[in-house]
Amino acid sequence: MNGIQSLWERMSAVSPAPAPWIVQVTAVVAVILVLEPHAWRVTRNVVTIVHEGAHLVVALLFGRTLKGVRLHSDTSGVAISSGKPTGLGVVLMTFAGYVGPAVLGLGAAWVLGTQHAVAVLWIGVVALAAMLILVRNLYGLFSLTVVGALLFGLVWFGTQDQQVAAAYLITLFMLVAAPRPVLELQRQRARGAAPESDADQLARLTRVPGIVWVGLSLLVTLSCLALGGWWILRPVGG
């Protein structure tokens, strides 16, 4: 019982607001991780994990049976579930992937505002542990293990300042990174290189053109970036 209580105290610990320079530096680092090509080849794997995780969460919410998830070294992935092949649940599950990182970032920004920065890290640890149960290939196992180990190391061994800085970095990275895969998707579609993309699957499910779904995904990710960024950076500016 004491162990459970101690774990809960760690997960729900209140964190002091970081110094303005910490938020500013993490924002700059987040932008670099997205815009610098070599860094993006690595960090995009994290976005893929969240993308596929979003598919799985929505599938579960609509009563679908989760079968597995695969993550590949080219930063692509696939979430596998079974259930009705059409309907609102399938549409929302398919749409969730590209907007998932932005929605996660927005939620994390709200949690940061409650001064529970460490909870952002714990949510990541729990989500990755759940995905480990469903992973079906070696690269996916490697990716989830590495990211999960880094997060667990921070929540268990990191100092409070390190945990707060990491939570802000992860949140800002998710918000900044989310629009880029949407833009990359449309470039691929324009070359005819992504006929089975989420947007094209949505077009077949709804008869709404794929470009509309791309535009809606971009609108959601940019809106989350604007709102989440404002929530985080407004106190710094004030």
Automatic annotation (TrEMBL):
<feature type="transmembrane region" description="Helical">
    <location>
        <begin position="87"/>
        <end position="111"/>
    </location>
</feature>
<feature type="transmembrane region" description="Helical">
    <location>
        <begin position="165"/>
        <end position="183"/>
    </location>
</feature>
<dbReference type="InterPro" id="IPR049500">
    <property type="entry name" value="Peptidase_M50B-like"/>
</dbReference>
<feature type="transmembrane region" description="Helical">
    <location>
        <begin position="21"/>
        <end position="40"/>
    </location>
</feature>
<keyword id="KW-0812">Transmembrane</keyword>
<dbReference type="Pfam" id="PF13398">
    <property type="entry name" value="Peptidase_M50B"/>
</dbReference>
<feature type="transmembrane region" description="Helical">
    <location>
        <begin position="211"/>
        <end position="233"/>
    </location>
</feature>
<protein>
    <submittedName>
        <fullName>M50 family metallopeptidase</fullName>
    </submittedName>
</protein>
<keyword id="KW-1133">Transmembrane helix</keyword>
<keyword id="KW-0472">Membrane</keyword>
<feature type="transmembrane region" description="Helical">
    <location>
        <begin position="141"/>
        <end position="159"/>
    </location>
</feature>
<feature type="transmembrane region" description="Helical">
    <location>
        <begin position="117"/>
        <end position="134"/>
    </location>
</feature>
